[in-house]
UniProtKB/TrEMBL annotation:
GO terms for biological process: methylation. InterPro entries: Methyltransf_11, SAM-dependent_MTases_sf. Gene3D superfamilies: Vaccinia Virus protein VP39. Keywords: Methyltransferase, Transferase. Residues 26-78 form the Methyltransferase type domain. This is S-adenosyl-L-methionine-dependent methyltransferase. Transmembrane segments: none annotated. GO terms for molecular function: S-adenosylmethionine-dependent methyltransferase activity.
Length: 207
């Protein structure tokens, strides 16, 4: 988007910004928390988050969406993108990893299948109108086209880096055994139709 709209300014907020990516000159990544965004009221025309379903609790979702609404201009838009894990029939190692991860984060009080609740939360924010949603099933890997390839790369980062220690601890296995499970899982994804559901919600802040 930053490349397509070079005259617009894009600001990303991360708890621990440490990206090695090279961004266009109209992009800034700063330190920030969704639950207390470091921005003024009505600062943005468009505010978007993605991939928070395994990071924050239901109560924090409400607080985070209120913060997104606060920093968005009247007449501006907010958007949320999330994915649900779908039980896999032909990828037993991926299913094993996903089942254990869902167990681990539910023990932390998180709700990974937040898609069933987000629209309800949005409708309870009285500053929002024009609330919409869409869902799309995507195959991981080349069978899913450009989106499937991107999701497959992201899944690799997620399993190898982001969630690896959580799974190693929860499954009580060695790092070597975990890496072996994921490598077999990668092969399963490449050979089978492994599916994710992508959800989008978008709403306008009232004028």
């Amino acid at each position: 988007m930053a490349t397509a709209y070079p005259k617009s300014e894009f600001i990303g907020a991360e708890l621990n910004p440490h990206s090695s990516c090279t961004f266009p000159p109209n992009v800034r990544i700063i330190k920030g928390d969704l639950l207390q965004l470091p921005f003024e009221d009505g600062e943005f025309d468009f505010t978007r988050i993605a991939g928070f379903s395994c990071e924050i609790s239901d109560i924090e979702w409400e607080q985070g969406l209120l913060e997104m609404t606060r920093v968005t201009k009247r007449g501006g838009w907010i958007e949320i993108s999330e994915c649900d894990f779908i039980p896999q029939k032909n990828t037993p190692n991926i299913k094993l990893l996903i089942d254990n991860y869902l167990e681990a984060i539910e023990l932390r009080g998180l709700h990974p299948m937040i898609s069933s609740k987000l629209e309800y939360i949005l409708y309870n924010i009285n500053q929002l109108t024009e609330i919409h949603s869409a869902v799309k099933s995507v195959l991981l890997g080349p069978r899913g086209g450009p989106t499937g390839i991107t999701l497959f790369i992201n899944a690799g980062v997620w399993f190898r880096e982001i969630s690896s220690q959580t799974l190693i601890d929860h499954m009580r296995i060695s790092p070597e055994k975990y890496l072996e499970l994921w490598q077999i899982g990668e092969e399963e994804i490449e050979k089978n139709d492994t599916e994710l559901k992508l959800y989008r919600w978008w709403a306008q802040k009232k004028l």
